[in-house]
Amino acid sequence: MSEAIAIRDEVVEALRRGSPVVALESTLIAHGLPYPDNLELAREVEELVRREGGVPATIGVISGVPKVGLGSQELELIATDEGVVKLSARDIPMAVLKKGHGATTVAGTAHLAARAGIKLFATGGLGGVHRQARDSWDVSADLSILSRTPVAVVCSGVKSILDVPATLEHLETLGVPVVGFRTRRFPGFYLTDSGSTLDWDVKYEEEAAQLIASLRRLGPEGSGLIVANPVPWKEQLDPKLHDRVLKEGLGELKHQGIRGKSVTPFLLERLQRETKGESLRVNKHIVRNNARLATRIAVAFATLEAKEGNRATKL
Ligand code: PSU
Ligand code: MN
């Protein structure tokens, strides 16, 4: 029995050379988007990372093997197989034991990416503090994992289905740094601005790369980083439509008694239906944007490391 993580040859080679590698999440493929859009997007995003000069590594568990870098057939399996379960970091050993297939959440993906030595990770949105968390204690493990996993996640904030201000407070408590990319407004996933502000921003990819290097030198020890990249104003979901559909969805959640890890997929699916595909369009746009930015930061980081002869991370 092997418990090793299988890292794709191309990814191993890129990491060995110090070339830019970008980790990509699989839960958004399996449980966040409908087929065939999910598979198309998964492939498109990998292609986009390559065009920007990086090596993509979509992460998931196939037949009990944690994989860093999925092949074409494996991507298809994640996008289509009904038996693909949602895996947070803590679930990975169980999926290995049971030899199952699984799509990794932000927590699960960040965990495996860091183990493989990948520094950049792109996704749509993070999990966070749910609106009923005071009663349900539903706070995504995405937040705590990022406090002890040295990976920079490029995302468009957290979905408005969550309690955004509480999520930012919780990230502060956990000591996870959050910076806006060219903004001090924390993005609201489908919306450019969630209404919450940030204390820090970075102006360029190079500055983000320097920040990653600095975090590695200064700590907090082993901490991740959140780079918040908002959807452009002209691409965002109509805020009125968004607020109405969300309110209805939250009511339905209560009515049907949906809890735990089914909450996010339920609300996403409903939003897609009720906005007649608008939320899907925005979701895809965000994932592409974040993959592009993550790759550019990874390229800047690789350049920085080469210039400093690895001093960027080793000091
Ligand atoms: N945001 C999205 N799409 C998603 C998710 C978040 O836009 O599919 C998924 C991510 O995988 C995230 C997870 O890590 O939901 C959080 O789930 P939970 O709240 O059960 O921890
Ligand atoms: Mn949860």
Description:
This protein has 315 residues and is an alpha/beta fold. Helices cover 49% and strands 13% of the residues. Strands 1, 2, 3, 4, 5, 6, 7, 8, 9, 10 and 11 form an 11-stranded mixed β-sheet that branches. The chain starts with 5 loop residues before the first strand and ends with a helix. Manganese (II) ion is lined by residues 138, 140, 260-261.
The helicity comes to 40-55%
Largest sheet: 11 strands, mixed
- Rounded Rg: 18 Å
Number of helices: 14
Low-pLDDT runs of 5+ residues are: none
Tell me what portion of residues adopts beta-strand conformation: 5-15%
Bound molecules: pseudouridine-5'-monophosphate, manganese (II) ion
Distance between the termini: 37 Å
| Number of distinct beta strands | 11
Q: Characterize the overall form.
A: globular
Counting helices, strands and paired strands, the structural category is: alpha/beta
Task: Describe the structure in brief.
The chain is of the alpha/beta class. It is 49% helix and 13% strand.
